[in-house]
């Protein structure tokens, strides 16, 4: 780009003394431009004088074609003198490139690429009365810093950036090679000879027959056909280079698809923009071609772009589906956006072309509403462009968190893996102080979460959910957005969430009858064990309480042992101690019974689940 920026001072990148005026310019978005010269040439060579800094690009992309077939013999250029130290060729020095021809009269087309400032898009989105269907207009700004005027050229602008790189073809390169030294041959031992007895020589085989004339004639004919079609192959091959490298005019004439008629200004000056009016001449639209993942705008009329000037041309003007609305998307760079939404224009790209990244101005009924930045928008995609902050709408939000759900992932014997969810519920509350209803898009960041049961009309893109909410004038609206993140948890069969997960799987998965019966039996045994264990815990607690009560009663009896007046109390405590002992014996027996029942059921459960292995992620879970 640095070379292109000083193009006026350094002169044209390519000079020629032949009658090859500039006829076509194609500007790309990667810092190169394709230039095509065309004309009648008399002589046996064409000479070009190329800037030292551009020789590599010129030689790497040079394409020469001629009507009726190629007559180019070679392209020769002098090598720079060997450097004697720190000397380097000046980038403003020129190198002669001579293209040798095999005759006197030629109609040549010469194409090549050199560094060129990128073209830049600029957009308008124009709404009519009451915000009806908008029109999107795409303009292209082209800078000519090439060092020469582009007079009456056919101009094309290409969206996208084909692969392009510098290639130093004009510099001599001799790679290092290994050195091989002949060290002679030394024989360490005298070899033994071999003796062969005399034998008669075998009869020689008959020589193979000479090749017939037909294959030789066929090969010669094929060679002649190859020579005759070389020029046509060059032209056909150039037609396929659009996605790799610019090609001459016949290759870039829209082969492979009919251009779509579009609008562009006529003449050699930049048009004047009227924001509330559509272009008048609908037959002069730029031809648009989309091939190989790129979009090319071909302006229909020749125009002149003087050197060291910029020209703005209209590329397309189309009515597209769209509307104005509001977007709540807090931006750290806009402080009030944490409480107020942006006024936005939302539209779908129906131009048939890729819209490159660039500024976009929003108009309505002849009035300027604001300006935003349009990111690269493929055909058929929808974008939302903020252009102002609306303080007549206020947004508040609050979030609660919980862990919910239980889904069976795997069951191996008594061990379960279940899937649960960390759930976040965000409530958005919108107050509308405007005199009209407002449709608000709430941008909710998802991160690694998924939106659960999204509200009607919700869209997801680039890790965000766009949740719509319509609020009537001078009223309030509220909506809840639920997101969740799944995680696995290991539990045993007696866990409450594990049992819920098993029951849900039995209802929903419809497992094989044998598997279902086995799992239900195991679950029933596990529940019996849980119930008996709870009773045992109760009995153990009761035994501890009785033992403590018994000890307290004995302490009280010891305290009144020598008191002769406390006979009635002594009898009362003695009777209580007897009852406690009886209850304590019964409780101990019940604990022993429960231990026996629990042990039995544990054995039954262990036998029941010995071969149980259920994987819900497999297609056919089996015991």
Describe the structure in your own words.
Helices cover 23% and strands 36% of the residues. With 623 residues, it is of the alpha+beta class. Among the domains are: 2-80 and 90-167 and 243-314, no CATH class; 393-492, no CATH class; 509-615. Strands 2, 3, 5, 8, 11, 12, 13 and 14 form an 8-stranded mixed sheet that branches. A hairpin with a 2-residue loop joins strand 18 and strand 19 (367-374). The two termini are 70 Å apart.
The helix/strand class is: alpha+beta
How much of the sequence is in beta strands? 35-45%
- What does the largest sheet look like? 8 strands, mixed
Provide the helix percentage. Answer: 10-25%
Radius of gyration: 44 Å
Shape: elongated
SS summary, helix count:
8
How much is the average pLDDT?
79
- Uncertain stretches of 5 or more adjacent residues: 1-9, 211-278, 280-284
Query: Total strand count, please?
Result: 28
Distance between the termini: 70 Å
Question: What's the quick description here?
Answer:
This protein is of the alpha+beta class.
Task: Indicate the topology.
Layout: H1 2-5, H2 7-10, E1 14-16, E2 22-27, E3 32-42, E4 45-51, H3 55-61, E5 63-66, E6 72-76, E7 94-101, E8 105-115, E9 120-127, E10 135-144, E11 150-159, H4 213-228, H5 230-238, E12 287-291, E13 294-298, E14 303-305, E15 309-319, E16 322-328, E17 342-348, E18 358-364, E19 367-374, E20 382-389, E21 393-412, E22 415-432, E23 438-445, E24 450-452, E25 459-461, E26 464-471, E27 475-492, H6 496-508, H7 513-559, H8 567-608, E28 613-615
Parallel strand pairs: 2-11, 9-18, 16-23
Antiparallel strand pairs: 1-4, 2-3, 3-8, 4-7, 5-8, 6-7, 9-10, 10-15, 11-13, 11-14, 12-13, 16-17, 17-20, 18-19, 21-22, 21-28, 22-27, 23-26, 24-27, 25-26
């Amino acid at each position: 780009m640095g070379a292109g920026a000083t193009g006026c001072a350094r002169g044209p990148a390519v000079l020629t003394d032949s009658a090859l005026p500039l006829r076509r310019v194609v500007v790309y978005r990667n810092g190169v431009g394709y230039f095509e010269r065309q004309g009648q040439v008399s002589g046996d060579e064409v000479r070009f004088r190329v800037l030292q800094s551009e020789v590599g690009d010129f030689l790497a992309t040079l394409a020469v074609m001629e009507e009726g077939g190629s007559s180019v013999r070679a392209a020769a250029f002098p090598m720079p003198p060997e450097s004697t130290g720190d000397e380097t060729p000046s980038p403003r020095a020129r190198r002669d490139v001579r293209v040798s021809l095999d005759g006197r009269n030629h109609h040549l087309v010469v194409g090549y690429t050199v560094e060129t400032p990128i073209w830049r898009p600029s957009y308008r989105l124009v709404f009519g009365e009451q915000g009806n269907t908008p029109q999107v207009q795409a303009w292209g700004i082209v800078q000519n810093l090439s060092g020469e005027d582009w007079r009456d050229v056919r101009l094309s602008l290409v969206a996208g950036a084909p692969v392009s790189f510098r290639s130093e073809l004009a510099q001599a390169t001799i790679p290092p090679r290994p050195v091989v030294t002949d060290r002679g041959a030394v024989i360490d031992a005298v070899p033994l000879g071999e003796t062969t007895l005399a034998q008669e020589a075998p009869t020689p085989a008959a020589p193979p027959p000479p090749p017939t004339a037909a294959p030789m004639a066929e090969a010669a004919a094929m060679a002649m056909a190859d020579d005759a079609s070389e020029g046509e192959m060059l032209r056909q091959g150039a037609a396929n280079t659009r996605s790799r490298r610019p090609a001459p005019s016949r290759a870039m004439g829209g082969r492979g698809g009919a251009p779509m008629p579009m609008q562009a200004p006529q003449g050699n000056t930049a048009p004047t923009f009227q924001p509330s009016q559509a272009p008048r001449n609908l037959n002069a639209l730029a031809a648009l071609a989309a091939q190989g993942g790129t979009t090319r705008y071909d302006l229909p009329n020749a125009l002149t772009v003087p050197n060291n000037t910029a020209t703005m041309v209209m590329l397309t003007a189309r009515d597209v589906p769209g509307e104005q609305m509001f977007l709540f998307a807090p931006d750290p760079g806009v402080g009030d956006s944490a409480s107020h939404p942006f006024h936005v224009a939302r539209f779908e790209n129906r131009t048939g072309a890729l819209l490159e990244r660039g500024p976009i101005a929003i108009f309505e009924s002849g009035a300027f509403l604001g300006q935003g930045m349009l990111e690269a928008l493929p055909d058929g995609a929808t974008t939302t462009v903020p252009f102002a902050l609306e303080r007549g709408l206020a947004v508040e939000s609050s979030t609660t968190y919980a862990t919910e759900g239980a889904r069976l992932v795997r069951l191996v014997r008594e061990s379960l893996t279940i899937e649960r969810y960390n759930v976040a519920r965000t409530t958005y509350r919108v107050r509308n102080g405007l005199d009209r209803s407002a449709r608000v898009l709430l941008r909710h960041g998802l991160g690694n979460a998924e939106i659960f049961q999204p509200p009607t009309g919700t869209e997801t893109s680039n890790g965000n959910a766009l949740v719509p909410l319509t609020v009537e004038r001078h009223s309030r609206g509220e909506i809840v957005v639920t997101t969740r993140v799944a995680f696995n948890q290991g539990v045993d069969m007696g866990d409450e969430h594990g049992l819920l997960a098993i029951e849900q799987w039995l209802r929903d998965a419809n497992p094989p009858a044998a598997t279902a019966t086995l799992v239900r039996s195991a679950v029933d045994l596990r529940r019996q064990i849980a119930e008996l264990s709870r009773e045992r815990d109760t009995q153990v607690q009761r035994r501890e309480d009785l033992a403590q009560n018994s000890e307290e009663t004995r302490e009280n009896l010891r305290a009144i042992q020598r008191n002769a007046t406390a006979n009635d109390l002594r009898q009362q405590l003695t009777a209580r101690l007897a009852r406690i002992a009886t209850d304590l014996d019964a409780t101990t027996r019940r604990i022993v019974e429960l231990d026996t029942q629990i042990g039995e059921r544990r054995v039954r459960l262990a036998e029941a689940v010995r071969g149980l292995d259920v994987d819900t992620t497999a297609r056919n879970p089996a015991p």
